[in-house]
Each structure stands twice: as C-alpha cells, then as structure tokens.
Amino acid sequence: MSQPEQPQLYIVTPEAVDHAFADTLAAVLDTHPAACVRLDLATRDEDRIARAADALREVTHARDVALVVTDRVALAERLGLDGVHLSVGGSVRDARKALGTDAIVGAHAGSSRHDGMTAGEAGADYIAFDASAGHDLFAWWTEMIELPIVAEGALTQAAVRTLAPVTDFFAIGDEIWSAENPAKALNTLLSSLG
Fold first, then answer.
1. Whole-angstrom Cα distance, residue 139 to residue 160?
2. In this structure, are residues 165 and 122 in contact, taking their beta carbons and an 8 Å threshold?
3. For residue 155, with 0-12 CB atoms within 10 Å meaning exposed, 13-18 middle and 19 or more buried, which class applies?
4. CA-CA distance, 43 to 16, in Å (whole number)?
5. What pLDDT shows up at residue 15?
6. Choosing a second label site near 121 at 20 to 30 A (CA), which of 26, 77, 106, 146?
7. 39 and 53 Cβ atoms separated by less than 8 Å
C-alpha cells in the first residue's frame, strides 16, 4: 500500500471539556487541518456528552472534519455524528449494523495485530494501534493490510518522526491539551514532519 506524503491528523478531545473548549479546538484545527475529531469524554452522563457533541459539531463541520464519539454507538446515531471509535473489545459488527455503511467505525487494537485484523474483517474503517507497539507492527500493517492505520498514545517528536512513514494518521490529544497553547504544542509535536 502506498502511503500519503504525510500522515493526516486525528484529534482526540480531553476527558473533560468546558464551554471554552470549542474555541480551543477551532484554533487547533485552524492551525493544522485534521481528518477527524474524536469526542472522548470520561463522563457517563449522556446529556453532557450530547451538549459537548453539539458544540464540537459546529466547529468540525464548519471545517469539513468528521466527528466521532468513543464507544457510544446509540449516542452517535441519535446525535447524527459521523461515527464511533470503539475501544479494545468493542463490537465492530454491531456498530456497523446500527450505524450503517456510511458511518465511520474505527477500532482500537492496542498492540495486537490479531485484534486489528479481526476488527478489519468485521468492517472497521480504520484500526488504531498504540504508538508504543513499535515501528515493526506499523511497518508490517502498512505492507500487508490496506486498511488505514492510526498511531496514538504518548506520541513524542521522536515517535512522530519514526512512525510517519508507516502510518496514515496520528491521533493526538493528551499530548497537547495540558499546554497553555495547544495549537503551538501541536506545531512543536509535528515539527519533525517538515
């Protein structure tokens, strides 16, 4: 599979967001265009998730960026989001059946090649692996499997530089949200991409 010149950006929200977060996200997306934003809140309160999704949808859709939510298939459907990202062990088949063929269904496979292939065979649109799984897993996947691959988790400048030739997307979240200026932190993190 031929790789794009540079991996695309996939933004993951913090586990808690406030009313000002939509503006912060807009600044990040205006600095670096992204393919997708994942709403990844820690709360189980569906009303809070729905309010956050409504605010972020305005930001993402104005920039032609997909908005998915972690693990909440029914909520993704009810809110009209672009899809769902399933944590390790989530049922891709059930999500695909509920959301239809047009929705994005992504799956996290940790560092398991087997789990990634199983999710792909079940209909996932992309597979996310922990960046710590190492270059060899990403290189193998890129060579053998056509399904897009996402590197996520504790990304550093060195990891970005190492994985850039063998991944389609970088999922970036915690790496930038604790910074005073997340857009600037993202610039620094991605500076090795040129």
1. 14
2. no
3. buried
4. 8
5. 96
6. 77
7. yes
What's the confidence (pLDDT) of residue 27?
Answer: 96
Report d(CA 104, CA 114) in Å as an integer: 21
Q: Which two tokens stand for residue 5?
A: 């010149």
Rounded-to-integer distance, Cα 113 and Cα 165, Å: 18
12 membership: H or E segment, kind and range: strand 8-12
Which single residue is written with the structure tokens 């912060």? 24
Q: Is 64 helix (H, G, I), strand (E, B) or coil?
A: coil
Kindly tell me the sign of the dihedral angle through the C-alpha atoms of 107, 6, 159, 63: negative
Cα 178 from Cα 42, distance rounded (Å): 16
Three-class SS of residue 91?
coil
For the residues 166-192, what does the mean pLDDT come to? 95
Give the side-chain half-sphere CA count within 13 A for 152: 25
* Helix (H), strand (E), coil (C) string for 72-93: CHHHHHHHCCCEEEECCCCCHH
Output DSSP code: residue 182: H
Question: Which amino acid is located at 26 in the chain?
Answer: A
Using DSSP's 3-state secondary structure scheme, residue 85 falls into: strand
Q: Of the candidates 80, 66, 76, which has an alpha carbon nearest to the alpha carbon of residue 34?
A: 66
Q: Which long-range contacts (CB under 8 A, 24 or more apart) does 147-155 make?
A: 147/120, 150/10, 150/106, 150/126, 151/7, 152/10, 152/12, 152/108, 152/128, 155/131, 155/189
Whole-model pTM: value is 0.94
Phi, psi (5° rounding) for residue 170?
-110, 120
